From TrEMBL:
It is a multi-pass membrane protein. Coiled coil: none annotated. This is His/Glu/Gln/Arg/opine family amino ABC transporter, permease, 3-TM region. Belongs to the binding-protein-dependent transport system permease family. Residues 17-214 form the ABC transmembrane type-1 domain. The keyword Nucleus does not apply. It is found in: Cell membrane.
Length: 226
């Protein structure tokens, strides 16, 4: 009988799972490149001096952006992006678009900090050695520095990817359909906690796949010991 209940619920829960994968996919596609730009902007030394103080406006703007994104709840950011355009300009946001935009700018702030710390962890001596060998700054970064940075940032990046899978449930706050929303509706209609249990198992499976994929990546990059 329980098997029949599970079978009957699975089509709805699988639809919700597809929505989770869509949120995950588009967030990663947008936030990872943006996070890389955030890391570069954070380290950008372009600016001017006032007395003994270095003024670096781009770096400061990036730091303020990161503080806002990392210092306020993602749920609040979702609601602001969804409803602020209507209250300010009477423009209605598409729920999926608002979800992806909020997730992308939020996670880009975290990825930016991860990538920045990875870049900063490379000893300055490697830059100097590359210069002595005749490498340009671009060649040094892409051929020597970047592979090592990728190796070092894989574990924290994998953790953020797993958090992203779970955070997709927050889209429920603006009515964006996904797995948690589907489970809640089934729970109400069936007067059973079984949909939540199944949803939890699906979230666990998705994160197990992400974790396994990142472990494979770590193994492939094990030749970078630095």
């Amino acid at each position: 009988m329980i098997f029949d209940k599970i079978t009957g619920m699975m089509p709805v829960l699988l639809d919700g799972t597809v929505d989770v994968i869509k949120i995950f996919f588009w967030t990663v596609i947008l936030s990872v490149p943006l996070g890389f730009l955030v890391a570069l902007g954070r380290n950008l030394r372009l600016g001017f001096r006032i007395g003994r103080f270095d003024v670096r406006p781009i770096s400061w703007i990036v730091q303020i952006y990161q503080l806002i994104m990392r210092g306020t709840p993602l749920m609040l950011q979702l609601m602001f992006i969804m409803y602020a355009p209507y209250y300010l300009w009477h423009v209605s946001m598409n729920r999926f678009t608002a979800t992806i935009f909020a997730f992308a700018i939020n996670y880009a702030a975290y990825f930016g900090e991860i990538f920045r710390s990875g870049i900063d962890s490379i000893p300055r001596g490697q830059y100097e050695a590359a210069k002595m060998l005749g490498y340009t700054k671009t060649q040094t970064f892409f051929r020597i520095i970047l592979p090592q940075v990728v190796k070092r940032v894989i574990p924290p990046t994998g953790s953020e990817f797993m958090v992203l899978i779970k955070d997709s449930a927050l889209a429920n706050v603006i009515g964006q359909p996904q797995l948690f929303d589907s489970a809640k509706k089934l729970m109400s209609s069936s007067s059973s906690i079984l949909p939540l249990v199944i949803a939890g198992v699906i979230f666990l499976i998705l994160n197990a796949v992400v974790e396994y994929a990142f472990k494979l990546c770590e193994k492939k990059l094990n030749y970078y010991k630095g």
